[in-house]
Design brief:
- There is one protein chain.
- This protein folds into 3 domains: 179 residues, Thiamin diphosphate (ThDP)-binding fold, Pyr/PP domains (Rossmann fold), CATH 3.40.50.970; 150 residues, TPP-binding domain (Rossmann fold); 191 residues, Thiamin diphosphate (ThDP)-binding fold, Pyr/PP domains (Rossmann fold), CATH 3.40.50.
- The chain is 42% helix and 16% strand.
- Helix 3 links the parallel strand 2 and strand 3.
- Helix 2 packs parallel to helix 8.
Length: 577
């Protein structure tokens, strides 16, 4: 009888060992598809999912706020071309991550927001479950796709669909809803293994129609004042060599949008960045590569664009064409295939643009660079935006492989114009929405994904949105150097309460704030600097040491302009006093 009992126990143990559950299937599905990192914040009902992911070899970066974790996942997608994964709890945690999901969708960053949720039968009857919310319905308008998995055997399908939706066509954010009960469901391990899907060719090439390529090349050949405009889609596409070959073979001046900087070095002789206003107004044919004619490009209309012009647009989405102005030569397909096709048709007989156009562009460029140089090279006390940026410009020139994260108002706008980039996908900023608060999430993800140092430049206002993540940076000992341009307020730190009352002006902060003390409080390195020499020494030491560092760079409180360079978007009150 004892032998029979032992045999039954052995069979029971084998049967138990042959089981798996929803927790493990989610992790196995992600790992099967090459996803190694999760950005999130553990809590009910996903705490054990985070623990088990770490135990099974995934890197789980636990943040202090879900929005910052979501921003990390979004930019991880841009950097890696694989969906960045953000894991949140239900209801409020989901909502915190939703802003980042919408940001990813707007900017075409592949991202998956995975959130635990309440059980459907309770949500649908509105019976008041813990953090009850119909998250799937809320997510749909803000995501490229949204899915819910109710049965453990469907987890593999759910993950596969989320991955394919995130990266195919125009990339974007995807929501995946995992009710709490799902994660604890068990099934036979072999059945679970067979239910998983390794996604094959999730972002297949989409070749452009040959006649669309011929039309585009004919327009370029007939142009008198051509311009190539590169967007962040061109950087994401990783068609770096062909894009450079197209620019150099045609001899056409090019203008990179901020996150396309570095596709070719900003010091390239054909770069027209320093003559941006001139080339946009004067060009007659503009080739858009992964760039949209949205508000960042004045919708392709008005004074910014000067006289009539013809547009060639490369985009994977046919519905993007004619969204603001007529597109004379739409080229629909993935950027790599489209650029390669155009390059193949250009031929060695392609005539370079007329000399009078090139000379006019480069004369304007040289004049503006000289004017900029005068502002950068001034020595003023306290520092202003330009003198402080001169230091960071030199730092990045000496360290071109580091990632540069940038957010703020004036801090963002001036840096876009001043700091040169030399390698692609190294400049990471607020993107299409201009949303504040991406800085620390981006910095964490850039350090994790690239395994290289990160320099994050924030205005003091922008830093406030995600500043608590300095603890995350210290906890994971990431090689991130944060520089805060501190001028005591939003835009400026000198505004006064118009009533003369005791409350400060709505745009001012505590004068002389010491943000560096925050970093020191968590074990990192803090530095308070007031001169360019001190700023240079502090940043270089941070990059040399690889230690989490925050440099509080004191800037003239009167430096800065209202809304940076977006004053036209901030209507002034017409109320009479």
């Amino acid at each position: 009888m004892a032998e029979v009992g032992n045999e039954l126990q052995r069979h029971a143990a084998e049967e138990h060992q042959a089981q798996t559950d929803g927790f493990h299937l989610v992790i196995d599905a992600l790992k099967l598809n090459g996803i190694e990192n999760i950005y999130g914040l553990p809590g009910i009902p996903v705490t054990d999912l985070a623990r088990l992911a770490q135990a099974n070899g995934m890197r789980v970066i636990s943040f202090r706020h879900e929005q910052n974790a979501g921003n990390a996942a979004a930019i991880a997608g841009f950097i890696s071309q694989k969906p960045g994964v953000c894991l949140t709890v239900s209801a409020p945690g989901f909502l915190n991550g939703l802003t980042a999901l919408a940001h990813a969708t707007t900017n075409c960053f592949p991202m998956i927001l995975i959130s635990g949720s309440s059980e459907r039968e309770i949500v649908d009857l509105q019976q008041g479950d813990y953090e009850e919310m119909d998250q799937l319905a809320i997510a749909r308008p803000h995501a490229k796709a949204a899915f819910r998995v109710l049965h453990a055997e469907d987890i593999g399908v759910g993950i596969a669909r989320a991955i394919r939706a995130a990266v195919s066509g125009r990339p974007g954010g995807v929501y995946l809803d995992l009710p709490a009960k799902l994660l604890g469901q068990s099934l036979e391990a072999e059945k679970g293994r067979k239910s998983l899907i390794k996604v094959v060719d999730p972002a297949p090439r989409q070749l452009p129609a040959p006649d669309s390529v011929d039309r585009a090349v004919a327009l370029l050949k007939g142009a008198k004042r051509p311009l190539i405009l590169l967007g962040k889609g061109a950087a994401y596409a990783r068609a770096d060599e062909d894009i450079r070959a197209l620019v150099e073979k045609t001899g056409i001046p090019y203008l990179p949008m901020s996150m396309a900087k570095g596709l070719l070095p900003d010091t390239h002789p054909q770069s027209a960045s320093a003559a941006r206003s001139y080339v946009l107004a004067e060009a007659d044919v503009v080739l858009l590569v992964g760039a949209r004619l949205n508000w960042l490009l004045a919708h392709g209309k008005g004074k910014t664009w000067g006289g009539p012009k013809q547009f060639i647009q490369i985009d994977i989405s046919p519905t993007e064409m004619d969204s603001n102005v007529a597109i004379a030569a739409p080229v629909v397909g993935d950027i790599g295939s489209c650029v390669s096709a155009i390059l193949g048709k250009v031929g060695n007989d392609f005539a370079k643009p007329p000399a009078d156009w090139l000379n006019a562009v480069y004369e304007r460029k040289d004049k503006n660079l000289a004017k900029m140089g005068e502002m950068l090279n001034k020595e003023v006390s306290p520092m202003n935006f330009h003198t402080a940026l001169r230091v960071l410009k030199d730092v990045i020139k000496a360290n071109p492989g580091i990632s540069f994260v940038n957010e703020g108002a004036n801090t963002l706008d001036y840096a876009r114009a001043v700091i040169d980039m030399y390698e692609p996908r190294k400049r990471l900023d607020v993107g299409t929405w201009g949303v504040m608060g991406v800085g620390m999430g981006y910095a964490v993800a850039a350090a994790v994904e690239t395994k290289k140092p990160v320099l994050a430049l924030c205005g003091d206002s922008a830093f406030g949105f995600s500043g608590m993540e300095v603890e995350t940076i210290c906890r994971y000992n990431l090689p991130v150097c944060i520089v805060i341009f501190n001028n005591n307020g939003i835009y400026k730190g000198i505004d006064k309460n118009p009533t003369g009352g005791a409350d400060p002006a709505v745009t001012t902060f505590v004068p002389g704030a010491r943000y560096d003390k925050m970093m020191e409080a968590f074990g990192g390195v803090g530095a308070n600097v007031t001169t360019t020499a001190e700023l240079e020494a502090a940043v270089n030491e941070a990059l040399r040491s690889g230690k989490p560092t925050l440099v509080n760079a004191v800037i003239d409180p009167s430096a800065g302009t209202e809304s940076g360079r977006l004053t036209n978007l901030n209507p002034q009150s017409s109320a009479k006093k």
